[in-house]
Amino acid sequence: MGMTMANRFDADGGELDRRPRPTPDVAVQLRGREPASPREEILCELFAQVLGVDRVGVEESFFDLGGQSLRAIRLISRIRAVFGVEVPVRALFWNPTVAQLARAMGEAGDSRPPLVPTSRPERLPLSFAQRRLWFLARLNGPSPVYNMPFAWRLEGGLDAAALKSALRDVVRRHESLRTVFPVVAGQPYQRIVDADEEAPDVTVVEADQATLPGLLEDATRHVFDLTTELPVRAWLFRLAPEEHVLLLMTHHIACDGWSMGILMRDLAEAYRARAGGQAPGWAELPVQYADYTMWERGLLGDSVEASNLLSGQVDYWTSALRGLPDELKLPYDRPRPIEPTDRGGAIGITLDAGLHRGLEALARAHKTTLFMVLHAGLAALLSRCGAGTDIPIGTPVAGRSDEAVHDLVGFFVNTLVLRADLSGDPSFTELLARIRETDLAAYTNPDVPFERLVEILNPARSVSRHSLFQVMLVSDNAVTRRWELPGLRIEPELFGHETTKFDLSLFVRPMHHADGSSAGIRGTFEYAQDLFDESTVEALADRLARLLRQVVEDPSRPVSEYELLADAERQRILHEWNDTGRSVPEHTLPQLFEQQAARTPDATAVLSGASSLSYAVLDHRANQLARHLAAGGVGPEQSVAVALPRGELLAIALLGVLKAGAAYLPVDLDRPAGEIDLVLADARPTVLLTDGATAAGVPTAGGPAVMILDDPTTRAALASVPGTALADDERAAALRPDHPAYVVYPADPTDTPRGVTVTHRSVVNYCAWAAATYRVEAGSTAPVAAPVSSGPEISSILVPLLAGATVALIPQGGEPLTALLDGAAGPVAPVRLKPSDLRAMAGQEDRATERSMVLVVAGETLPSSLAHDWSRGGAEIHREYGPEECTVGCVAHRAGDDSGLVVPMGRPIWNTRVFVLDDRLRPVPPGADGELYVAGAALARGYLGRPGATAERFVACPFGVGERMYRTGDLVRWRPDGTLEFAGQIEEQASPAPAADAGDGTPASPQEEVLCELFAQVLGVDRVGVGDSFFDLGGHSLLAAVLVARITERFGVELPLKSFFANPSVGAVSAHLGDVSTDARVGSSATGE
């Protein structure tokens, strides 16, 4: 780790500056130019493999490098295997270089016109690559993100005047370096500045070793004004009479990685000439970038519908990228910001020589290239890390298919989108075959500019992410040597400046020994710091290396079976983060309550309005009810339904049922009568406890026997029995911790009631943890305001009663927090709420300072901002997560300085373990989405009377002998610190939300009418509705800039391009402008006439 790449890569205007890093040894190509197309790049690799050499230049002869007949036959065989085409051996003898052979292979189907000098219009349009870069620069505002800075330390007698003249010579030679981009009516064009009109700026600065790093950093932050400023400049830092540092910087709109080699070669040649008192004597270039722009226009046309010579390639990409995911789900550490900062980081990865050899052997065996193997490995890694099975990855190609531009500085680089299909859990061998077909097809169609693809495919736009792909893979096979100037020793200079345009990029460079043998693969993972921590990307790099090692050992295994986790990481995820063991009493709930009542008999146990019950009285009356129920045959493995409002009878009934040994079955009186019927029919309780006021609303026909607790006869019967604790021989069977404590029926959208049965053991574990975590103790008060019909509400009574605290039963419609603040004294713990409850009490946050207060928020995600508001007010905020099947809460987190948008779910509670697993029950790495499984003491017994449903959700745990785990159906991910965060529900992932109704689209004001006309004019359509998206109607980035300019001109109100991009409809624009309609501005037609 920590390796820095020696070369700079670029990719569709999104090149990633890795600093601190050395400037590349780029200047002059050792054996001619670099590969100009994917076909040439693959052929270079095949030539090198067959010849057994380090690498082969595109202009080197196969036979000059040691090729002979047998090797020629092997090469033809490899070409046939990789490209799927038949090349006669004689063709190799006639075309022995990569460049010649690639051209011969492509001539049959290439009918495009040659690139030659051509006439130019008065306003020269931008190339498609420039259009995209110009638009992004316009969208994001002034920024150095597209700067291409390079620095060298020059030791010796430097002729500064010759250097300045040489740079001017280079700018004179290459029109792209003296092109500016004025804008008229939102439309940019290329204006080529006369060579005698303006020279590139060279700033000479006195510096020393201490000030140099800061000066370099400041220089690299220079922002080019593309409308007026030449896109190249230099700084010469003078450290001593014979020691300088040269920083040369271009804007990417005028240059690419290939171009830097040309630029430095020409600069060296010009410097040698100028130092000798001469002008450089180079031949005139065959074409300029302006000629390329017009040639490209002729091939592609100027609209999506235009017929052109590359229509077949357009058809291919339209089909190949149909249905592409808008965004990959990567193991991010942070949510994607609305406006990214482009801050980047980088870490190195090294694959050793043995693994390198294995990967090359795998490529040969499966008729692919090393790049394809690495592509398959990266796609497999991302898929296993939660990105899904449809993985689009970008890769750059030189974009110089015509020889006329091989020596020309300009922005030619294009980007291909390579789509990897991992559906059906393929073996790596099968995945590699899919990758081979996909990559070769893409390489056969490399000429459609990426910007044109975006216009044609019209993906969902977002200012926060790159269109079509967010991950880049770049292979560097450049053959270069050191830059040389006469009388100078030149070394690359390190400097710091990191930016990125993609979420994640992997740059790889195969290394070779002098004899051509594999020496390892060096790589760099670059990442957006908005999204990733360095540790996360380091872990990704480790996992890639681990995956590739296993692939070499056995490529026939399904991708899902390769182990991504290191032993230490697996240990941490499965064991260290689940190290939750704590000692909890092996008692039932009645035993624990009775012990507490004995310790604090006179303390207040229950408050209900003006009445109260002490612990002794509550225990006595609950014992009487329990003894009465037990005498009627009620006991363990039975249930007793309770339909009572919040009040002292409810507390007595809950404890009485538990003491009798039965399970408490709450009846939610807010549910429809039909649902209550279903619950009672499914649970088959022995008896139903209620009061006179409630009984009439409870459907009891054909149901259990009903006991009216406030009926005089019942009260007399209860009063006649002793109030001492029950012995086991008084119950139908001895009560044990594994007997059911309660049965609850969560709302079920299928109308099939499922009673979740929870044991005493699980409830005791939760109560012990909650009392300790929420500091529930004698003297504190716990309010209960919700119907006691679910696990959390049941625990709201049991937790305080087992800890010696007071339960305050709030009347129907009362707010628990308000009631406690206005009434009870002492600490308030816990108060169980939903985020919506906190919002409803906005303005009362500061009242939390009146006493110690613990708020437990569950049932919904908790926004960090809301938690912070109440924390600043003095409250202690906890988020709790747990389905009924996991006993109230199985994961919890105390909110603090949480940086995310929502408070994380947290960590497992005592004696509970959680696992984040893929669909094959394998642990997923931190950061990757997986389904949450819960094991341990928190688990319910299962679904009452439904063994099939229980077996479906409570499955065997692969990480503990004889254990079960509950499949929650919730998607979560591990954070690096071992906390869980929510990622959605599995069914939600399968069905995106429907788009909002845009209405009938009729303008509702004169302002909207004018906007609709402006939209239609720019788009060239008859009509635009108020809710129509500009891009859905065929708009693209450059047209958006034109429209924004016209809107600003028409209304006199600045409309930021980024605002338009975020919501590109008439209605949204009108809302942004506000009511600026006036007779002068809107009363006339939108044409301005």
Automatic annotation (TrEMBL):
GO terms for biological process: amino acid activation for nonribosomal peptide biosynthetic process; lipid biosynthetic process; monocarboxylic acid biosynthetic process; secondary metabolite biosynthetic process. The keyword Ribonucleoprotein does not apply. Coiled coil: none annotated. It holds the Pfam family Condensation. GO terms for cellular component: cytosol. Keywords: Phosphopantetheine, Phosphoprotein. Residues 9-22 have a biased composition (Basic and acidic residues). Residues 34-109, 1002-1077 form the Carrier domain. Its cofactor is pantetheine 4'-phosphate. GO terms for molecular function: catalytic activity; phosphopantetheine binding. InterPro entries: AB_hydrolase_fold (IPR029058), ACP-like_sf (IPR036736), AMP-dep_synth/lig_dom (IPR000873), CAT-like_dom_sf (IPR023213), Condensation_dom (IPR001242), PKS_PP-bd (IPR020806), PP-bd_ACP (IPR009081). Residues 1-24 are annotated as: Disordered. CDD domains: LCL_NRPS-like. This is AMP-binding protein. It comes from Micromonospora orduensis.
